[in-house]
Design goal:
The protein is of the alpha+beta class. It folds into 3 domains: about 80 residues, conserved putative lor/sdh protein from methanococcus maripaludis s2 fold, CATH 2.40.420.20; about 90 residues, Beta Barrel (Elongation Factor Tu (Ef-tu), domain 3), CATH 2.40.30; about 100 residues. About 30% of the residues lie in helices and about 40% in strands. The protein has 4 helices and 19 strands. Strands 2-9-12-11-10-13 form a 6-stranded antiparallel β-barrel. Strands 6-5-3-8 form a 4-stranded antiparallel β-sheet, with no helix packed on it. A 3-stranded mixed β-sheet has the order 18-1-19, with no helix packed on it. The longest helix has about 50 residues. The two termini are about 60 Å apart. The relative contact order is 0.19.
Length: about 375
Amino acid sequence: MKLRFCLCLACAVFLLTGCGGGPEYAAPPQNVALSAVTSETIAEELVWSGNITPAETARLSFKVAGVIEDIYVHAGDAVTAGQTLARLDAGDYEIQTRAAAAALQAAVAQTEHVLPAQVSQAKAQLDLTLANYTRVRELYAAGAVSAVDLEEITAKKTADEAVYAQAAEALNIGRAETERARSAYDMALSQLAAAEIKSPWDGVVLQVVAAAGESTAAGYPVLALGQTAEMWAEIALTDAETVGLTTGLPAAVYVYGPEDTWRGSLDEIGALADSATRAFTGRIRLNNADGRLRAGMIARVGIERRGEERVLIPAAAVLHLADGDFVYIYDAGSGAARRRPVETGEIRGDKVEALTGLAPGDQLIVEGQFKLRDGEQVTPQ
């Protein structure tokens, strides 16, 4: 029994001597990867529901009153510039045009033939009389003719001068009458042309509000026409949104009908709010050369607005515990990893926003952080 106790004691001493008698070895510093913390300007996307409208809209009407003879188009029809869209019964305007043409023709005949001939005749007679007057006055001075002869030729000169002046005045009046007749004819032609509505540009008929056989007044809308080579995506903006937005911001417009996205920019921000909705209209111009966009389609409009400077870090660098989130940063002075509490915000892809705890220039440990302890020595790779 005593021998067994001695052997156990000897083994214990041996083991204690073997475990504690040799030199101690410290574990080498852990390798880590670093990433410098930087700030980024984040583009913020704002989203609205919008609708597609023509870039230009016109309510077309006749410039003169009358009875509508025919309307040649229907809502949804594509039209080209100069195409006749509707016509009045133009019988009365055709009569007025023919009468004005006849009056102009008569006035032109007077001023170009009759009145000039009368002026020429009166001028020739006056020239003859003036020659006789000069001759008689010389003879009278020489005593060859009597005073009665001089008085007679003087009276004739006065009369012929009056006739010539009247003929010249008649020609001037005739010319003025011709201009009035020409203006009346031009007006008649204009009214005859105004009995038709022609398309001012390529587009599509949005609405027809009249029918053949109806009487219409000058200027009363007959149909609405939209120019569709370009379209608007319209959105309703609140007061605050108009303050935060500026024209020129990039926009992506997804249209549900064609199921496609058009790119553009915010072209207009209305200066006057709608009286009913109190919203301001924002417009994004879209190219519609292929005609796929139609008025009234619903769209999703996203506009990118330049945001604030924010600190974004790799999401994998953040460690999560019950008492909060933290990261490790590298302290170059001591060569150690330092634990730093952080408050995180919005996740953007593989990065997360660091709201507090980090500043640009910090050396963030992005690899090897999972086995670290606060203050542990590390080796950057």
